[in-house]
């Protein structure tokens, strides 16, 4: 979504992000003439989008009244993962008033999942969190046609292709809705309340079950012609690598992702290369379904287990190689690493940095932070709330 | 440069791109009310930016007068290559009125080169091509800070770092000037008058002495935080490959570019692997400085020489591998191949396509043309003229 610069939208976004502000300061900050500002504020007050909030501290002259985003506003933020539903209901400042989180298999299909989302939101209403919603924002783990509000050929979401998610949510809740890819909303969230605050050009790299990249350029998310920009998990990094779920060989996420790491950890444990992993495998509750996870590898590495450290470094080297290419191409001002495997922490980060800094041109890396996400698991719902408020503000005009 | 949508700019661009149009049609096309349109046109006529151009054919009602971009407008378009200066002086429709082209070594430094550009433009004035220029647009073969109008750490342009190219040209010619990277202006040119006409999201890949990529996203060139976005020549494609001029090993342009192809062609000729190349090498004028070029390889391939075809296909495979990655990342709607090595033609193109279509996700390649540049060597000056006119229109308001 390209954000419009209409004055009423700038007012709403400023009040959303910064809280109560005096009319005088609003006019200064947004460089609006006093009559223009007062007219816009008048209109937004009449539309119940902003409200009076008492008097401002004196600035020497006449005291100015504060305005704030209307305390009645409510947005629903939904982050659908491959195996989870995360929901927050937030106020106009995007502060969470209630949160719901439960496991759910995205493969159970759109009807069941959207119905469960509606049930959780109905529960929030029953709980008194809201009377009516002003917008719903939802992220899904696959490509999305942002314009049409539908998933498009999402590989891990059988039955969801062109399912009218936006339309159904809008109808159910009687308000605007907006649908985006899960990694895009994470990038938006991290820019709103995380480490990429106010950064215009950055890449948000999610390393979890799969690998994806949110591309934030020139202050807005770039989604690509078909909504699949940033689908970097299927970039080939080793022509002789393992076969990927997509059918090609040696894709990035076939070599390093939650699933790949679990596979490699199990192999290392069984081959006797890793005392730490072997111990965790032996201690597993159900030996028949014995398995290891990224957490086991992270813990092993923290204990100094050489095989665990090697697994993380090899993964970091793969990711770093792809990111070096993307840095040469996109020349961003920051790279944020998020997703479940970000818990592998500084060993992973150090390896990624090392490859990116060595392989990209000095001009592009001279001042390029490569950092971990600050919001962690909350990046998605935070971004979905931002999108919901943006669409509510746009449509309210 | 993000293009503003102010009405006077939309009028000027439409007249630049389409020629004389009636006031009535202008109002319809740009969705402007009649009073607003007439006021804008009045102002542009008064400013000598547009002019009356007779009566339009009747559309049934009152006949409407045509307006056109002012026939007096003149823009200078300059394309500096590693070893050449190309200049066109164009009118307000961007039609060339005069062209100058000569060899020049960019390494002779900014003073000598900019002076030569000024001499050629002075010659054009003496020749009666223009009385005064309305803007100068120039492309240089290196990263550029578009905002500051200076080259930034350009690897093949010693002495040019932060040299005030824009300021000096503006002062010399008494008009606005604009500086950009050479590949960016090629992309802009190809979008204005070539195969990417009106395409909003595409990649222009120049394969010449070096390799670079112009990134056109959402209708505008994306230049990156430091002006070096699209610098894809130094992406590592083979960790065991030859050392590149940048100091790293196995960069794309160390494996496939004008210089790399000449090197590999010479090796093939000397190893007796290529009768076509050996014959051309023997026929060279100065045996002491015996060398082969991309043209020799293209001719050899056209004759069916197996080694020549192999060289082109190997190069296409390298370029295709990098482009497959960029397609997964950026999800563009077209890829345009230009630069000197585009003369290798359809053998090269077929190999690039094959790799891109095989390696990228089906959703991203389902409707992705990979095509040769239509403008060829004129893409650069065409884009420089577009940029010059854009900046003249912006500053005229």
From TrEMBL, chains A, B:
Keywords: Kinase, Transferase
MF-aspect GO terms: kinase activity
PROSITE patterns referenced in this protein's UniProt entry, alphabetically: ROK
UniProt xrefs under InterPro entries: ArsR-like_HTH, ATPase_NBD, ROK, ROK_cs, WH-like_DNA-bd_sf, WH_DNA-bd_sf
Record-linked Pfam families: ROK
Family from the record: Belongs to the ROK (NagC/XylR) family.
Organism: Paractinoplanes rishiriensis
Protein name: Sugar kinase
């Amino acid at each position: 979504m390209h954000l419009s610069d209409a004055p009423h939208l700038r007012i709403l976004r400023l009040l959303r992000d910064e809280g109560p502000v005096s009319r005088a300061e609003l006019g200064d900050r947004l460089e609006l003439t006093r009559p223009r500002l007062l007219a816009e504020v008048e209109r937004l007050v009449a539309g119940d989008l902003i409200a009076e909030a008492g008097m401002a501290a004196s600035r020497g002259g006449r005291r100015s009244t504060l305005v704030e985003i209307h305390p009645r506003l409510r947005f629903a933020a939904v982050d659908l993962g491959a195996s989870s539903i995360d929901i927050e209901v937030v106020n106009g400042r995007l502060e969470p008033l209630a949160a719901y989180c439960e496991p759910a298999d995205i493969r159970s299909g759109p009807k069941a999942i959207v119905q469960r989302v509606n049930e959780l939101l109905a529960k929030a209403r029953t709980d008194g969190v809201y009377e009516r919603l002003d917008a719903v924002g939802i992220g899904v783990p696959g490509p999305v046609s942002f314009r049409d509000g539908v998933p498009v050929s999402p590989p891990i979401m059988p039955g969801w292709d062109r399912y009218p998610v936006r339309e159904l949510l809008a109808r159910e809740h009687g308000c605007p809705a907006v649908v985006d890819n899960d990694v895009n909303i994470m990038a938006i969230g991290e820019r709103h309340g995380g480490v990429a605050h106010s950064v215009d050009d950055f890449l948000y790299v999610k390393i979890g079950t799969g690998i994806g990249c949110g591309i934030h350029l020139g202050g807005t998310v770039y989604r690509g012609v078909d909504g699949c920009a940033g689908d970097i998990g299927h970039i080939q990094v080793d022509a002789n690598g393992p076969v990927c779920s997509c059918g090609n060989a040696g894709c990035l996420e076939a070599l390093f992702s939650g699933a790949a790491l679990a596979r490699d950890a199990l192999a290392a444990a069984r081959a006797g290369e890793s005392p730490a992993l072997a111990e965790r495998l032996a201690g597993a509750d159900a030996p028949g379904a014995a398995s290891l996870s990224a957490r086991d590898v992270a813990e092993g590495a923290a204990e100094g287990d050489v095989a665990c450290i090697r697994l993380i470094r090899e993964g970091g080297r793969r990711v770093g190689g792809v990111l070096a290419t993307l840095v040469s191409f996109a020349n961003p001002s920051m790279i944020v690493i998020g997703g479940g495997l970000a818990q592998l922490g500084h060993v992973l980060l150090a390896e990624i940095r090392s490859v990116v800094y060595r392989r990209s041109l000095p001009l592009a890396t001279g001042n390029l932070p490569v950092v971990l996400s600050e919001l962690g698991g909350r990046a998605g719902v935070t971004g979905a709330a931002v999108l919901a408020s943006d669409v509510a503000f746009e449509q309210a005009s």
